[in-house]
Specification:
Two copies of one chain form a homodimer. Chain A is built from 18 helices and 20 strands. The first copy, chain A, is an alpha/beta fold. The N terminus of chain A is likely disordered.
Chain lengths: 476, 476
C-alpha cells in the first residue's frame, strides 16, 4: 500500500524540486553568513534562470531585492521553498507553504530526527502538515539540490566557484559531502545533470529519486550514496526498472558491524546486514562500488562512452610495467585481454614487431622506429577496429608535444567502442589539462591505472545486466 | 653459494650507484634529444654535487664542458658510469669501465634481454666483462637512479622540474614509470631518499637494493614494484632482515594468469603462481599493496609518523557520512573504532553532547555551539591523548579561514600517536595547499578517505610484524 502511494507521489511531484520556475528562500539574510544570504548569493552567482523570492519578516532587502515578510506574501506562485530557519518555526513555515500551494520544499534546517526525540517529533509534525496537501519535502538536514542546467543551487554555504558543468551524471547522497561546497566540481570539470542530498529522508527518498532520474532525459547514469534503504521491496522493484534503462551505481557503507553502529548514530536508522544489501543489489543489477571516489570515477564511463559488446580489452600503453598492472586490474574487473586478430598483428608488425601483442607496449618500438609517433593514430585505430577487441584502455603520458592530441578527437568520430585513459606525467597540471581535453572529446581519463580499467569492467558488467533485463522484459 | 656472493657484493659495492663522487656520462650529446645531453642537463638542473664527465669521441663540448673521447681518458677517477649508447658498443664501454676501475655502471641502453635472443647474449657478455672486476651493473634498459640528497639524476628524458624533495622514502621499480620524467614528484612534494629502476636486473637486483636501503640512514621505508624475484630464498631471508628494521611495501603484479603472460613478454622472465608470492611476503613481513598509487600513498605514513601501539582508531570528522565510510575502511584494514574513555566523552560532552562518541562528528555540534572552532584544538588533543586511542584519522575540509592551521603544527609536538588526514574541499588548489602544509608538519594527507585510513592500518600491521620479528630475534 505504502509502495503504491509513493510511486504515485513521485510521479506527480518531485520535478519542482529540480525544475522550479520560482523559488522562495526562507532564512536569515545576515551578510556573509551561512543561511539564506548564501543561498541567494549562490543563485545569483550560478545564474538561476527562474524567479526567486527572499522571505523573512526582519529584512527589507538583500542583494537589492525585496524581501517578503512571509511566503504567503510572495505575489507570484512559488514552486519550491528553501527553508533555512530554526527547527522550531519550520512547521509554521511548511503550513504557509501548504496555504501558498508550494509544490516542493527543501528543509535545510537541522535539529530534527538526526538530533533527538524532540526533533523526531517535530519532523513527524512537519511531514503531517505537508502530507495534507501533497507538498513534497526534501530533508530536513540537507544541503538540497543542484540543477546546473538552470543554475539552481540551494547550498547555504560558500561554494568558491560559480559554475558546475552540465552533463549527464546524477549524484544523490545521504550526506552533504556530495554538495558543491565540499566537492571541487568545477576543477574536476565534472558533467552533472542533478545533485541531491537526501538529508533525513522524511518524505522524498531514494525511490522518488530513482523514479525521477530514471525518466530524466538529461541523466544517463545515476550514482547514489545510501546509508539506509527504508523500503527494500519497493526500492528493489524501482531500481530494477531504472537499471533496464540506465546504470545505477550505489555506494552503500555499513559493510562492517562497527560502521553500522556509526550509521545508526549518524542517520538514526538501523541498517541491515550487509550481505542482504549485497545480494539485493546483485539481483537488481545495481553496480555496487566500494569507495566514494569510485562512485565518481565509474560514473564517467557511462556518461561519456558506449557500452562494450564484450569483455575483450586491448591495452595500448607507453609503459610495459603499466600494461602488466592493467591486465591484473582488467581480469579482476571481469575483462579478458583481447587476442588481436592476425590482420591486426600483421599490420602492427609492419610498423614494428614489438607492437604485435596485447598489451600493445609502444615503449620498445618507440626507441627503434624513426618518427614513431607518426604511426600512433594508425596503431590506435587498427587495434580498436579489430573484431576481437571490445574496448580499450590507453595509457599515455601527459607531456607537451609528444603527439597531436587531435588524434583522440578524430578517434571519437571513428570508433564506437568504449575507451578509457590513464594519463600520468611529470607535471600534474599538464596531465590534468590533457585529461580534460580528452574528457571534452568524450573519453574518460584518470590519473591512475585502476579506475580507468575498472570503469571498462563496470561498463561491460552493465551491458550484460541491461541485456539480461531487457530479455526478461520481452518474455511474456 | 650464490646467495653469499650476492650479499658480499652488495655490501661492498652498490653505494657508488647512489653516492658517487664522480660520474661519467657516455652517450650522444645531440642538443634537445633524449640521451647523454639530457642526463647532463638534468645533472646541472638538479645541482649534482659531485663531478661529472661527458664522454663521446664525436663531441668536443656540451654545456661548455669538455667532452672526453673515452672513459679511460677521463683524468680523474670515476665512481659511476651512465651508459646510453647503442647496445652493440656497450660491451666495449663496460670493458673500458673495468680498465678505469669504475665502481658501478648504469646501462640505460635497451636492446638487450628484453628485446631478443641476440640481446640476451649481448647482456650475458656485458655481465661477464663486469664480473671479471667486481664492477656493479644496473640495467640494462633502465632510467637509472635518483639521489635527491646529492642532486644525482640519471634520466635520459626531460623531467619538467628541477627539484625532488629530500625525504625518507626509497622507491624501486622494475619499470621506468617510477622515474622523475613520468612521476610528478615535485608537485606531490614527495620526500624521497633514493629512486632506482631495476631495468633488466642483469646484476643489481632487489636483494642488493634491500641490503643497501636497509642500511641507508636516509631511508625509513622501502616501496618496491617487482615484476619477478630471481632468487626467492635469498630474497626472503634478506627482506625479513630488512623488515625487522624498516617497513618494506611491495607491489607485485602478476596476480592473474593473464598478467603473468604479459609479464613474460615484458621482462622475459616467468613469474610464479601468485599465491606463492603472497604467502612468502606474509611470512617475511612484507606489506603487499595492490595498486601503484597505494605504493606511494602507504609509504607516507611510515616516512612521517610513529607506529601505533595498537589498532584502536579515532575518527574526527566534519562529515558524518565520511566518518561512517572511514569506519568501514578501518575495520577492513585491521583497525577497530576506539571506544573513548569516560574522561574523554565527559570532556567532549561539556563542549557538546553530539561530540561524545567515535567517530567524533563535528558537524552537528558545529551548528549548535557558538564559536565552535575555538574548541577544535582541544577536541583533537583530548581525543588523541585518550588512553583508549592508538591512532587517528582526521577528516577536514581544505577551505580558507575555517581555523588556524597552526593547530596541527602544535599537535605535532604534543602527540606521539600516528595521525593521517583526509582533506577534501571545493577547490583542489586549496585542498592541496592544506595537505602540503600538513605534510610539512609530518602528517600524511590524502584527498580521499581510503588511503588515509588504510595507511593507519598498514602502520598497525607493520608495528605487529616488527615486534614479532624482534621477539623472534631475541630468542636463542
Amino acid at each position: 500500500m505504502k509502495q503504491t502511494q509513493q510511486y504515485l507521489k513521485a510521479q506527480n511531484s518531485i520535478a519542482p524540486l529540480f525544475e522550479p520556475e520560482s523559488v522562495a528562500v526562507v532564512g536569515s539574510f545576515k551578510e556573509g553568513r551561512p543561511g539564506g544570504y548564501r543561498v541567494i548569493k549562490n543563485l545569483l552567482a550560478f545564474g538561476f534562470q527562474g524567479k526567486f523570492y527572499p522571505v523573512n519578516p526582519l529584512y527589507d532587502t538583500v542583494f537589492d531585492r525585496k524581501v517578503y515578510p512571509g511566503i504567503r506574501e510572495v505575489p507570484q506562485s512559488v514552486d519550491l521553498a528553501v527553508v533555512i530557519t530554526s527547527a522550531q518555526v519550520v512547521p509554521e513555515i511548511i503550513g504557509h507553504c501548504v496555504e501558498k500551494k508550494v509544490k516542493a520544499a527543501i528543509i535545510v534546517s537541522d535539529g530534527f530526527a538526526e538530533r533527538d526525540e524532540q526533533g523526531a517529533r517535530l519532523q513527524q509534525e512537519v511531514v503531517r502538515i505537508a502530507r495534507s496537501s501533497g507538498l513534497r519535502l526534501l530533508g530536513p538536514n540537507t544541503i538540497g539540490v543542484v540543477n546546473p542546467y538552470v543554475g539552481l543551487i540551494t547550498s547555504q554555504y560558500g561554494v568558491l566557484y560559480e559554475k558546475i558543468h552540465t552533463g549527464s551524471i546524477a549524484l544523490c547522497a545521504q550526506t552533504g559531502l556530495i554538495g558543491p561546497s565540499t566537492m571541487p566540481f568545477e576543477d574536476m570539470h565534472y558533467g552533472i545533470s542533478k545533485i541531491c542530498d537526501f538529508g533525513n529522508k522524511c518524505d522524498i527518498d531514494e525511490i522518488d529519486l530513482l523514479e525521477y532520474l530514471g525518466n530524466d532525459p538529461k541523466t544517463k547514469v545515476i550514482a547514489m550514496h545510501l546509508e539506509d534503504i527504508r523500503d527494500g521491496r519497493s526500492f528493489l522493484r524501482k531500481v530494477k526498472e531504472v537499471v533496464s534503462k540506465k546504470p545505477v551505481l550505489i555506494l552503500k557503507p555499513g559493510r562492517t558491524e562497527e560502521s553500522r553502529k556509526a550509521l545508526a548514530s549518524h542517520t538514526g536508522s538501523l541498517a541491515g546486514e550487509d550481505r542482504i544489501y549485497d545480494s539485493a543489489f546483485k539481483q537488481a543489477g545495481v553496480i555496487r562500488v566500494s569507495t566514494y571516489k569510485e562512485l565518481f570515477d565509474l560514473a564517467k564511463i557511462f556518461a561519456y562512452q558506449p557500452l562494450p559488446a564484450g569483455n575483450r580489452v586491448a591495452i595500448i600503453t607507453m609503459t610495459g610495467g603499466g600494461g602488466v598492472m592493467g591486465v591484473d586490474v582488467a581480469v579482476e574487473s571481469g575483462l579478458v585481454p583481447a587476442k588481436l586478430s592476425p590482420e591486426t598483428t600483421e599490420r602492427l608488425a609492419e610498423i614494428s614487431p614489438w607492437l604485435a601483442s596485447n598489451p600493445v607496449d609502444l615503449g620498445p618500438a618507440a626507441v627503434v622506429v624513426d618518427n614513431f609517433f607518426s604511426h600512433y593514430e594508425e596503431i590506435v585505430e587498427t587495434v580498436l577496429k579489430d573484431r576481437n577487441v571490445d574496448c580499450a584502455a590507453i595509457v599515455f603520458s601527459g607531456v607537451p608535444r609528444v603527439l597531436d592530441y587531435q588524434i583522440f578527437a578524430r578517434l571519437e568520430t571513428k570508433i564506437s567502442k568504449p575507451v578509457a585513459f590513464w594519463i600520468y606525467g611529470p607535471k600534474l597540471s599538464l596531465a590534468e589539462e590533457f585529461a580534460r581535453n580528452l574528457e571534452n572529446h568524450g573519453f574518460p581519463a584518470y590519473p591512475e591505472c585502476e579506475p580507468a580499467i575498472k570503469a571498462l569492467g563496470a561498463a561491460f558488467r552493465y551491458a550484460g545486466i541491461k541485456s539480461r533485463l531487457s530479455q526478461a522484459e520481452e518474455k511474456p
